[in-house]
Specification:
By secondary structure, the protein is of the alpha/beta class. It has two domains: 13-290, Metallo-dependent phosphatases (Purple Acid Phosphatase, chain A, domain 2, 4-Layer Sandwich), CATH 3.60.21.10; 295-358, no CATH class. 28% of the residues lie in helices and 21% in strands. It is built from eleven helices and 17 strands. The strands form four sheets. The chain has a six-stranded mixed β-sheet. It has a six-stranded mixed β-sheet with strand order 7-8-9-10-12-11, with no helix packed on it. A three-stranded parallel β-sheet has the order 15-16-17, with helices on both faces. A hairpin with a 6-residue loop joins β7 (154-155) and β8 (162-165). It binds manganese (II) ion.
């Protein structure tokens, strides 16, 4: 595959006005350039259609921003789609937007994330790549002698930037890729180098996700100019000795109640680079927020309050701010004693929100304590994936370290594999064999390194 050239008709039209920034002829590379780093787009997430619309709107706004800011290229550091087999209308919409990016002559380089990757190696990213809408830069070969994974840089034609990265897998299944990675050739490379990753790095892990397994940052090759990351839905950036800045952008649009409550909106990094000489660069990295709706976060402690009092308090909160056209998250907590959740008359909250013309109301009752029901002992701030991880760990059948790690990874992979539904137009037979094939792969010896040829 011709992976190094995004657009072969790379004519010189846009070079004419701006000759200073270009060294024409061979080896064209701009002396100053800028690009965007997006990650965790999760397109197609949210079951609620009004929220799903917003996650698509955030993507549209991001593409629009990339075009109007005339970035030289754009990076997606994994989890582009929420599932490996996204709905056709989502794929269609995304393809149209990526076409706009392509028409603006802005190449898009991506790595697949844990959500993009089906156990059989199928991914919508392959389809978009075949259509010429993006380039998957996670490309390389396994050296038959050393058994090491040798990644190859994709060279951006306009800026000469060298881009590579490692795909993400669920539940740290990518560990073996990093362990077998030939680092030296990447570390000795010259020029402006980008290494994309989609995994949990210990040094970048936020406090509230401390329980997640992670790799040390030293898993990544040294000497790259920038390490655009994805996977952890929390914006953070660090600089370590021997490495360029490493960062997580956070999701492009919050992906569940907790993320919406905590972050209100998503964003992405803009990187502006100035070349001093072939190997010396200065760069500025700035996080740009991406707001498609205003958000208000409310909390009500229900302890010792009647249903009417709780409704009244919510109405008061709504009136205290201009909540029109806002997303409103409402977290109920405290004890409702002998009441049941249905006794709170949830529809009343929706009615009140509708009266105030709220765009969407999201109600969360996870922190409600009821006397008759003792919930599972998990931090309720955690997202579904962390909850899943904690539950699996709690129920492992063995204490042998190697065996339990295997059992953990297998359970996690099985859960994610079985978490699928029949696709539009998919025959029952095809659906069944897709699931059986996916599961077989998990139990086979050569489960990993599917996507790297
Ligand atoms: Mn993600």
């Amino acid at each position: 595959m011709d992976e190094n050239n995004y657009d072969n008709n790379n004519d010189n039209d846009d070079n004419n006005n701006n000759t200073n920034n270009y060294q024409l002829n061979n080896n064209i590379s701009k002396n100053s350039f800028s690009y965007a780093h997006l990650a965790d787009l999760h397109l197609g997430s949210w079951r609620d259609s009004s929220l799903r619309k917003l996650s698509t709107a955030a993507f549209d706004l991001a593409i629009h921003t990339c075009i109007s800011k005339k970035y030289d290229f754009v990076l997606f550091a994994g989890d582009i789609f929420n599932t490996a087999l996204p709905a056709i209308d989502i794929v269609n919409h995304i393809a149209k937007k990526l076409q706009e990016l392509k028409q603006a002559k802005i190449p898009l380089y991506v790595i697949p994330g844990s959500h993009d990757f089906s156990p059989t190696g199928r991914s919508m990213i392959d389809v978009l790549e075949s259509a010429g809408l993006l380039i998957n830069v996670c490309k390389g070969t396994v050296n038959p002698d050393t058994k090491q994974l040798e990644l190859k840089y994709t060279i951006d034609p306009k800026t000469g930037s060298k881009i590579t990265g490692m795909l993400g897998r669920r539940g740290m299944l990518d560990r073996s890729y990093y362990e077998n990675l030939a680092r030296t050739p990447l570390e000795n490379e010259t020029g402006y180098r980008i290494f994309m990753f989609h995994t949990t790095l210990t040094e970048l892990k936020p406090k509230h996700l401390e329980m997640l397994d992670s790799h040390a940052a030293s898993f990544l090759p040294k000497n790259q100019n920038y390490y655009p990351g994805g996977h952890i839905h929390h914006k953070s950036i660090i600089e370590l000795e021997g490495y360029g800045p490493m960062s997580y952008t956070g999701p492009l649009f919050p992906n569940n109640f907790s993320e919406l409550e905590k972050y209100s909106h998503g964003g992405f990094y803009q990187i502006t680079v100035n070349r001093k000489d072939e190997n010396q660069f200065t760069q500025q990295i700035e996080w740009l927020p991406l707001k498609v709706k205003e958000h208000l976060a409310f909390q009500i402690n229900c302890t010792n309050k009647s249903k009417e009092q709780i409704h009244e308090e919510f109405n008061h909160l709504l009136s205290s701010k201009d909540s029109r056209e806002n997303i409103v998250t409402l977290r109920l907590s405290g004890s409702i004693q002998n009441l049941q959740l249905k006794d709170l008359e949830i529809s009343k909250f929706t009615d009140l929100a509708n009266q105030k013309e709220v765009y969407a109301l999201l109600l969360n009752t996870q922190k409600i304590q009821r006397d008759e029901f003792e919930g599972i002992s998990l931090s309720m701030d955690s997202n579904p994936e962390e909850t899943e991880i904690a539950l699996i760990k709690e129920h492992l059948t063995t204490t042998d370290k190697t065996k339990s790690e295997y059992e953990f990874q297998l359970t996690k992979s099985l859960l994610s594999t079985l978490n699928t539904t029949k696709k539009e137009g998919e025959k029952s037979y095809d659906f069944q064999s897709r699931i059986i094939e996916s599961c077989k792969v998990l139990f086979s010896d050569n489960a990993p390194i599917k996507n790297i040829e």
